[in-house]
Design goal:
This protein is α/β, with parallel strands linked by helices and 333 residues long. The chain is 37% helix and 16% strand. Helix 5 crosses helix 6.
């Protein structure tokens, strides 16, 4: 009788033949787009952000949905608020919980107003109020300023979500850099508000080791995110730090000792065509080893940032969004 492993992963998800023809076509298209236009570090982060808002980069201009509402949350600094964007369920349906969202963009790009379609589909699909946090960006505001804004927003929502948004803070989640900031914020609240507990957290293709796990270096395709881009993002967010210094748990959540922590249930998602695949797999294993409820969804052929693509056009986005909806709905009871 063969030995049985205590670790169970569906290896078929990682095989090249698991990638559909449509996924291959999308990824090849994205690789070609990535070869066009200037890089953000060539023109400067601030100028590149304006270019993206104006549709002057190879990737599509952001979609703005009118039902999204601008708001703000007080920060720790007198006279400075943190911008936010809020979506509530359509047709006046009851808000069952509040989802704090933290956007991606390598700690350098994007804002709370750059992913309206995704925020709306989460709000409508799970009957939650989604509030996206416009934390300060590098290189103008390097670590720890962005994380501090997320901490401040989370503490404010613990105290005020019910009165201001009609339900308690139940969830937190983000994509890429937003997944990284989500994990740091969860650790922060476990210390700062020990009596508070999330119903669940959503971690889409996050970066959890900023000294970099192997796939960040070995992934060879220039597909959305790759080694060169990662180095520029890290240099902006963590200027003057060494790889060893980046292993500080305050920077890289993978290195946090989570023994005995009362961690909330977590959903991790990542595609197999993502240079941060090791981050999701290894962080999910570590998380599960702590005893916390852990779901890891691997999507064959999906690239970095897959979940923000139109779900009616991209099968991987539809699969990921459905996993998020199912997770949130289950945790709401």
């Amino acid at each position: 009788m063969p030995l049985h492993s205590d670790l169970h992963i569906d290896a078929s998800k990682f095989r090249p033949e698991a990638i559909s023809e449509d996924a291959h076509k999308l990824n090849n298209h994205l690789i070609q787009l990535g070869k066009e236009g200037p890089k953000w570090w060539e023109v400067g982060a601030d100028k590149y952000r304006v270019m993206r808002r104006n549709g002057e980069t190879p990737f599509p201009k952001r979609t703005v949905i009118e039902s999204g509402k601008a708001a703000s949350i007080p920060s720790r600094d007198a006279g400075r608020d943190i911008p936010c964007r809020i979506f509530v369920p359509e047709n006046g349906r009851q808000v069952k919980g509040v989802f704090m969202h933290i956007h991606g963009g390598g700690w350098v790009l994007q804002s709370e107003a750059d992913q309206d379609p995704y925020l709306k589909v989460v709000a409508d699909g799970a009957d939650v109020a989604v509030i996206s946090i416009g934390y300060r960006l590098a290189p103008e505001n390097p670590f720890p300023q962005g994380p501090q804004d997320c901490f401040d927003a989370a503490e404010w929502l613990v105290d005020n979500a019910q009165s201001q948004l009609g339900a308690e803070l139940k969830f937190i989640g983000g994509e890429s850099a937003g997944g990284h900031l989500t994990m740091l914020t969860v650790y922060h609240l476990l210390k700062a508000r020990s009596s508070f507990q999330f119903a669940g957290i959503v971690l889409n293709f996050g970066a959890y080791d900023l000294s970099f796990l192997p796939s960040a270096r070995t992934f060879s395709k220039p597909l959305i995110l790759h080694w060169e881009i990662l180095q520029h993002f890290n240099g902006a967010f963590l200027p003057g730090t060494t790889p060893e210094e980046r292993k500080n748990p305050a920077i890289s959540p993978f290195y946090q000792d989570i023994t005995g922590m009362k961690l909330p249930p977590a959903l991790f998602t990542c595609g197999t065509e993502d240079c941060l695949l090791d981050d999701s797999v290894m962080m999910a294993v570590k998380y599960q080893m702590s005893g916390a409820e852990t779901v890891l969804r691997i999507i064959p052929g999906a690239p970095h940032a897959y979940i923000i693509f139109p779900p009616d056009q991209v099968a991987s986005a539809k699969e990921g969004i459905e996993a998020v909806r199912e997770f949130l709905t289950e945790k709401l009871g």
